[in-house]
Fold this protein.
Amino acid sequence: MFTPVPMHRTRIFVLKQDREKVIGLLQELGAVQLEQADKASFFREAPAPDHSVAVADQAFRLEGLATALPAVPVSEKLEVGDVNDVLAKAREIRIDEDVRKLKLELENVDLQLNRNNTYLQSLQKISGFNTDLASLSTQSLSAGFYSVAIDQFDDFVQTVKSLSKDAFVRSYISTKDEITALVVLPKEFQEQARVIFEKFKAAKLDLPTNLGKPDEARKRLEEENSSLKARKEAAEKELLEISKKHYAKIVALREALNIEAQRIEALGRAGQSEKLFVIEGWVPSTKLPELEKRVSDLTNGKAIVEKTKSKEIPPTLMQNSPKINYFEFFVRFFSLPQSEEIDPTWTLAIIFPIFFGMMLGDVGYGLVILLLAFWFARLGSGKSNARWLPKPIRNFGRSLMPKRALGQLGRILIPSAIIGMFIGVLANAYFGFRLPPTNPYPPVFDLIKTPQVYLIITLFVGLAHITLGYIYGIIIARHTGHMHLVYAKIGWLGFLWSGVAAVGLALTFVLPIRPAPLVFEYAALASMVVFGGIVFAFEKMRFIMEIPTLISHVVSYGRILGVLLASLLLGYIAASSVSLSSPIFSLVMAIIVLVMVTILNIVLGIFEPAIQGIRLHYVEFYSKFFEGNGKRFTPFAERRQLSKKTSS
């Protein structure tokens, strides 16, 4: 629960005659992350089977067909047998040439439509030009229509005309951004004109010079487009008919061939001798007994499954309860823990809502966030589509994150909002309003008058959090045999609490409270020296350098009060401006401001506590024990959705 699943490097010996059956079993179980077999122990790597090339070719072919055909719903799974049966079924599909011709037809039609549409757009920009477009192509003149930025048009005209007294420029259509103009020059000035066109970024219009006058060209292009669209519709309809007949079979066989390709890759990782076949990989400890039994039953006891030693870091498979595994998102976002580290998911699932609630601290905001959280959770589970919301809001919500992530966020916010409401009751905060002084239940925390009480609580919560991080670090270091780290972290832990005791006792001498006996202060200082010496013995000058970091980590938990006060004061000021005795206009404006501030506080109440709470984990907490950079456990598994094995 508090650590990833223990992994065992496992080696499986079977007779060569049983290798296909064992590979299939491993793929079915999905319990082994395959690794390259130890070549030093065997004569050679296992060769690829004879059908490997055929599997690769057919998988590539079916992938192309599936991409080319329009997708249609697949209602039933295709039943397939062994690899020979899958290859035979794949070869029975003989639509490659038909699909190729139809796709080529569609590509050609689209090219012609795009060309024609470009012509039509250009023709719209030369309205008023009624001469045959072929006149733009002559032996003695260089003529064409160009679009120029409107603010540079006058300079463009002067520059062009400065080339030759025979230069001609006439404007036709103008928009707020550009002007379209006809430019005619003698051929000998063509190169100089090109420099001018580039300077002014003048774009030449693409026009059909072989279709007569603009009106005639426009009519012919529109007629041709109608014919092209009819051809496109016919080709798409024919492709759809082919897809209805073959698509389901193609994608199912593609899936089956990919599974066979995985088996071929697995064989490439294995090793063999003259009679034996060996497979190596990482197996979760929870799956190892089942693996041993299934392999033994399949081979009639003619197999050996043994644990081996490895210097490699095992892959990580997290084992958290479904009730809290959505907090794994935060853990994975930072880094996956190594297999021998403590998984911080449980700790984060308990402490993050507490931090969030302590920074929210308002009953009203907490209630709104709680309702949103329930809605997010329902969206994630597919139980709500929120059709009662305006479409723009629904689209904005979908653009933020996928449904699954929104559902995870909702489940994370539910306990966080509840704790925020509880703190709000203790702090007497209800949408920024405070219950009157005659309230028989005065607030436990008066954050307006005595925020220092809450500050002290947050600092001690932070100390407990940091202490837990050091304890985790001690456990991990002891488990991995790094005893110098064990002693160093014990030293840091003692130094931290000795320092807290020394500061606390010193404050009793300057605050108007009863001073502590001086001997206690001396004892705390002596403890700091002793524990500091332990750390210095193992970490040398790093100890001196890390003292400011440790102090900043403790003080950093004061941000919990800072975030709460910012929201509380903002809401309190807005709420205080609402007075029923005010003039109507002032009252309306105050209510509008209050509503806007409330919405702002709700948005900040979701994002700011979440960001700051997770930051306290990543920086102050993780730095005491967490290394991360774990490799995800990726088992060799058969995942079938569109195909199924023939029952035998």
Notes: The first helix runs from residue 19 to 29. Residues 315 and 633 are 5 Å apart (CA to CA). The first strand starts at residue 7 and ends at 15. The mean pLDDT is 86.
